[in-house]
Design brief:
This protein is 58% helix and 12% strand. The protein has 104 residues and is mainly alpha-helical.
C-alpha cells in the first residue's frame, strides 16, 4: 500500500494533507519513518527549533528540590553501602532516583 501525504507549514501550523479521505492510516515501517520525519521537520520549521534541540530537555531545580534530592540520594547511598552493595550498584540506584525526580 502506498501512502501519499504532503506535509508543510501553513500559518505557523504543521499541516499533513492526504490525497484521499481516510478513516484509518496504515504505514509500513519505512513510510511511517518518512511521515514522522516530515512532521518533525515541519514542526522545526514552524518553531525555528532544530531537531537536535527537540530532544534536549532542561530541568531547573529550585534550591529546595535540590536539597531534598541530596538528602534522599545520600540516604540511598548509605543504606546500600551498609547492605554490602558495591559502589557501582549504589550509584545506579542514586542516578535512577535523581533522574526520576528531574524528568517528571
Amino acid at each position: 500500500m502506498n501512502v501519499d501525504v504532503a506535509i508543510g507549514v501553513v500559518g505557523g501550523k504543521v499541516v499533513a494533507r492526504w490525497h484521499h479521505a481516510v478513516t484509518q492510516i496504515v504505514f509500513d515501517p519505512d513510510n511511517a519513518f518518512q511521515v514522522g520525519t516530515g512532521l518533525r521537520n515541519a514542526a522545526c520549521d514552524a518553531t525555528g527549533v532544530t531537531p537536535e534541540m527537540m530532544g534536549a530537555s532542561k530541568t531547573e531545580l529550585t534550591n529546595e528540590a535540590r536539597a531534598k534530592i541530596l538528602i534522599i540520594a545520600g540516604k540511598i547511598l548509605r543504606s546500600m553501602l551498609e547492605q554490602g552493595k558495591t559502589a557501582e550498584q549504589a550509584t545506579v540506584h542514586v542516578v535512577d532516583y535523581i533522574l526520576s525526580e528531574t524528568t517528571r
